[in-house]
Amino acid sequence: MAPPTRASAKQPKPGRALGRRGMSRAEAAAAADAAARRSAAAREWRVWGEWAMGAAKVAAHYGFIPLVIAVGVIKSDPKPSLFQLLAPF
């Protein structure tokens, strides 16, 4: 198969300015606007994700020992009272 000649290349219609990828200016502007919205949405997700991970870290840090105590109370056969559970003697 022979390579296409310069004359056979697709020519734009007169009166229509084409951008980089063969889009009109309006289409290119709409694509740029959509890309900016996606970028802003990704930035928002990243901010909220960082906040959620920070909150989860604090909850895990301060909630681990109470969780272990609660599971120990629930799983023990003679259920101790709270005083017996926390008393050092």
From TrEMBL:
Name under which the protein is recorded: TOM7-like protein
- Report the superkingdom from the record: Eukaryota
Q: Does the keyword Nucleotide-binding apply?
A: no
Family, per entry:
Belongs to the Tom7 family.
Q: Which UniProt keywords apply?
A: Membrane, Mitochondrion, Mitochondrion outer membrane, Protein transport, Transmembrane, Transmembrane helix, Transport
Q: Which GO terms describe its biological process?
A: protein import into mitochondrial matrix
InterPro entries on file: Tom7
Subcellular location field: Mitochondrion outer membrane
Stretches for region Disordered: 1-23
